[in-house]
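Lab meeting, item 3. Inverse folding demo.
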C-alpha cells in the first residue's frame, strides 16, 4: 500500500466538520487526519512572516496617521464649502467672496 501525504490547512467548525482551504489532488477514499491547533496570535504572526518573505510590504503607523490627517483636511475643506453654500442660500443679500 502506497501513502501520499498532503498538508492542507483547514478550519474546524463547531459541529466538528473540517472546511479545507483548498481541494486536495487525491483520489477519493479513506484518509488519516492529524489535527493541530494554532492560537490566533501565532497564526497572524505566521501569516505576516509568509507575506513578508514573499515580498509584501506593510504600512507603518506614522504613514497611516499622515493619511488620516490628509483626509481630515480634505473633509474640513468640503464641509467649509457646504457651509458657505448653505449660508448663501439663506442669506442671499450677503456679498460672496
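The presenter then showed the designed sequence:
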Amino acid at each position: 500500500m502506497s501513502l501520499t501525504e498532503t498538508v492542507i490547512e483547514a478550519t474546524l467548525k463547531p459541529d466538528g466538520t473540517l472546511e479545507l482551504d483548498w481541494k486536495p489532488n487525491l483520489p477519493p477514499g479513506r484518509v488519516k487526519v492529524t489535527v493541530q491547533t494554532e492560537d490566533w496570535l501565532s497564526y497572524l504572526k505566521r501569516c505576516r512572516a509568509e507575506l513578508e518573505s514573499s515580498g509584501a510590504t506593510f504600512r507603518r503607523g506614522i504613514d497611516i496617521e499622515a493619511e488620516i490627517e490628509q483626509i481630515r483636511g480634505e473633509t474640513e475643506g468640503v464641509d467649509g464649502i457646504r457651509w458657505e453654500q448653505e449660508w448663501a442660500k439663506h442669506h442671499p443679500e450677503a456679498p460672496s467672496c
